[in-house]
Fold each of these.
Amino acid sequence: MIIRKLFLIFTVPASLLAGTIGAIAQDAPAARTTTTVATRVLPPFIIPGGDAYVGFSADLWNEIAKRNSITFTWKETANVKEILAAVDSGQAQVGIAAISVTSEREQQFDFSQPMFESGLQVMVRKTNEEGFSLSRLFGTFSTGAMPYLLGILALLILVPGHLVWWAERKHEASPFSTQYFPGVFQAMGWALSAAAGQQNDTPHSKLGRFTSIAAIFASLLFLTFWQAELTSSFTVQQLQGGIQGPEDLPGKNTGTTAGSTAAAWLKDHGAKVTEFQKIDQAFAALEQDTLDAVVFDAPVLLYYAANGGRGKVRVVGAIFKKENYGILFPRGSELRKSINASLLKMREDGTYDRLYDVWFGQRSQ
Ligand code: GLU
């Protein structure tokens, strides 16, 4: 008991002291000046919300700033290139949005621990060519072997129609008129129902019967070809149906944001790239048919496809280039260590997952 009391006497002041030192150390950056944080609007990471920002990165930064007593002001820039320039020139001491950590950027800047796992993905326009549509069905009549098959179908009606009418017209029980018109039309109707596999009256003459059997066989054969052709032309349309993933991008009109990792990838892989300031401009160009695809950070694309772009766009293929986002600092920044500690702590104490859930739903891992 006595030992325990003694222990308390010695430990309490020690821990109080440690707390004071901790507070001084934590307050050190804030005591210096106001920190300028460069960012750019990019939902769902940075979303304008009144006079501040909301979004995953904004909320994450507000929490980090609170934990480290950092007083700060936001500096909004147009794109990631300008965030890098602002931090490089000393106009800002921190950069945060959806900034991918790359080896090239790492040479010039310091990054925090990864704050988000991301990667590049492809987004295309949603067309009504997907699934069944009448225009698509009619389209199949003019492609491949279809025109020939339609010609054969016409012959399958004309030839047996004439033969049967000619052979049967004089027969007393003939269902056809003895006159060429309308007799031949009646016989063609008969041939059409034979081609469709339905047989009404058996012809009475030998030629009539022979023609009827031949017509049924020919139509069976024809239907088999027709079906095969229909299936294959639908498959070809599906395969040609545009961009299914990154391998289809070379030579295509693509759009992304200025100075982004996606722009660099697209240039390296032979796509035609338009670099926009805002990703929204790329989305609009895609919807107006000016672009074949938008290539960008998967979470941004998925967020758009589920919200503003719902029913208009579609994200295709898997993430094809993994990237991590980091908080950007100038080389040797004194803020980095304490911010890294907060980031790790927020992963440990559940704050990170809570924020993730708010913006992206349940975390899969
Ligand atoms: N993750 C992208 C990059 O850092 C984002 C680009 C952007 O903010 O437009 O390159």
Amino acid sequence: MNGNKIKQELKIPRHIAIIMDGNGRWAKKRLMPRSYGHKQGMERMIGLLDHAYDLGVKYVTVYALSTENLKRPQAELDGLYDLIRTRFTAAMKKVCARGVRLKIIGDISLLPKDVQTIVKDAEADTESFSGKGLNVALCYGARQEIVRAAKEAVAAGEEITEESLSARLYTAGQPDPDLIIRTGKEKRLSNFLLYQSAYAELYFSDK
Ligand code: FPP
């Protein structure tokens, strides 16, 4: 089936969110280091993003690093940071070239300074784009996001309502995800987009 036919026959979600799990196990099965799994996972993700925007998906959110992941051994975190150092800028340039606005969601002050600069610069490069979005969740946790939104609303003297809270989430102004996909066999949300996923369909892949 060609791309146009698929678009006609499928109801395309506006927003897909992806929990990219299983990189480490994938690599282990191939007797390779976990860092190889992360590298391959990232390349796979870039291909998937191209495909999703081709099909007409407007927003994609990728769970790249959770607050929980920050407790991993420093060597593994350093591998992930190196992957961002060496690959992130070019990868985001490629994905966002079609007018996708990049947004980093999460507390990036927890990242090494040079990595913060890399991701902030990539975000700034897409500032003028609108209509299509890519959220990369780094040092992200949904509970922290909700608490932060509530604190901001209170500090601004706002009444806490569904709308006032939504407007202060990282995803403010974007449609809620219609579909959340998790790879790697486990069937849970792991503190990902808890507020926004109220009506999302969940798809758990064994791959
Ligand atoms: C989960 O697999 C994956 C991660 C913790 C890191 C994923 C991040 C990247 C590949 C880098 C950034 C990517 C983008 C798109 C900016 P796991 O290690 O938990 O696998 P396991 O469950 O098999 O141990």
